[in-house]
């Protein structure tokens, strides 16, 4: 049995899971929250045991990694740290350098740092954790799994922007997408549930959460995705605006007398559901308020409208549709959202069965047996995809 660690690092969080392979069982998992902030929290759990929790001010990136390994050894998940043979790291931006997951060496690490211009909030931190774990576990292989690799070879007609071509050749300006590991997992799992090869399917996967993206698969290949040069593009999200007229950036900078960077921050942090509702970025809060709050209802209606637009355009690109998959926080749990999306796309053959759709966070086919298009709920599992790539590259 091999023991492989998965690291999913954000700007202020570190999510991790320890797997036994090849049986894919979770041996331990945890979260370090509020990194480098007051009242940082370390939580961890092993199957059948009570949750372990420590609160400590200003846990640093280095300390967070050390605490993970100390917990695994002290709490018996591993007897010796050298039992951990591989570590898989989620990395947001792989650009056009990385079209698949890759074993990390010094050259790869340098490229990940260079690609920080495409994900300045993520890549530097993820590169830092790779360095830390290379120091702490020098004999373990380090594997980088990129959010963008799924989209690296989309058709050029879909990933290019209609701007001067040299901006692509000189600066790498193109659609890179995001959530690729999640879309890859749910697409493969949906094909298994349907008992058909992914290569035979026209499939749309909807990762609907705080960040949302929609991806179209044709015969196993991604042909289009909603997120763009950065995760700001695409559908309306919790705090992100999604697609809009680019001239608005200059207009708002002038009217508000602020910089372009400050406008982009507004579009990332203060827009979307939060911006329209002026209440909350959380759909659950808006659903509760909607009966008496017109702006909360408007925000929900706009979100569904934007999702429907992308799905409709992808059905046109695909020339038909075999199945649609809902995943992530909203996609897995928002019963009414799935119902409304299906209702608005009924002319494509989409339908959900009310009793089957009454499900949260569980795998299920929610369309009627005779529906022209299969509709599935598939909880995402990015960590499982990452650890599978660690194993695949080891072999």
Q: Any overview of this molecule?
A:
It is an enzyme of class 2 (transferase). One of its GO terms (cellular component) is cytoplasm. One of its GO terms (biological process) is acetate metabolic process. Keywords: ATP-binding, Cytoplasm, Kinase, Magnesium, Metal-binding, Nucleotide-binding, Transferase. The structure is a single chain. The chain is α/β, with parallel strands linked by helices and about 400 residues long. It folds into 2 domains: about 1-145, ATPase, nucleotide binding domain (Nucleotidyltransferase, domain 5); about 195-380, 2-Layer Sandwich (Nucleotidyltransferase, domain 5), CATH 3.30.420. The chain has 15 helices and 14 strands. The strands form 2 sheets. The chain has an 8-stranded mixed beta sheet, sandwiched between helices. Strands 11-10-9-12-14-13 form a 6-stranded mixed beta sheet, sandwiched between helices. Strand 2 and strand 3 form a beta hairpin.
